[in-house]
Specification:
single chain
Length: about 180
């Protein structure tokens, strides 16, 4: 029997495209909502960028940079970006869809990924005990320092998140200009 987390993990990207189309249809942006949204979108993109420059997927447990404050900075950044786009769109339907996605898709995926990490990295249990799952906490004492790696950032193609955010923002601006009196 296939677990829900496996279905969620495989379906989240195609579902994301469908929700993006729904988002564009439901969005009703104003200049102020775009500005408020940007106040979330930009920090969310920065968090994701920093996290991608510290993670070496399946090779070692990431515990430095943003990973010293939260076990899932990539998801945290995505949630902050989604919050920004929800503000930009000015639609309660979008807020509802994003909340359902968080609970039904992303929380099971996070749990499954953490189960994988616990299975492959013996030090994960101690790390999970000290560092919160999603909302950042204070960095533990004696945190090992690590430099941000542009090579990792490029390897993970994290620039696609920025390109996507710019594209969605451009569509919102066009929609705003097209629909404004």
């Amino acid at each position: 029997m296939v677990s829900w987390s496996r279905i969620a993990r495989r379906g989240r990207v195609p579902l994301g495209f469908a929700i993006a189309a729904l988002y564009m249809w439901l969005a009703n942006p104003l200049a102020i909502s775009l500005l408020v949204g940007a106040m979330f979108i930009i920090p969310g993109l920065l968090i994701r960028a920093l996290a991608s420059g510290h993670v070496q997927k399946n090779e070692r447990l990431a515990t430095t940079g943003p990973y010293a404050y939260t076990r899932n900075p990539l998801y945290l950044g995505s949630f902050i970006i989604a919050t920004g786009f929800a503000f930009a769109a000015r639609s309660w339907w979008i807020v509802a869809v994003l909340a359902v996605m968080l609970v039904a898709i992303y929380l099971p995926v996070i749990r499954a990924e953490e189960a994988f990490l616990a299975q492959h990295f013996p030090e994960f249990a101690e790390y999970a005990r000290r560092v919160p799952r999603l909302l950042p906490g204070p960095a533990p004492r004696g945190m090992r320092r690590s430099e941000f790696s542009w090579d990792l950032y490029k390897k993970h193609r994290e620039y696609n998140a920025t390109l996507g955010a710019v594209a969605i923002t451009a569509v919102l601006i066009i929609k705003l200009l097209w629909l404004s009196p």
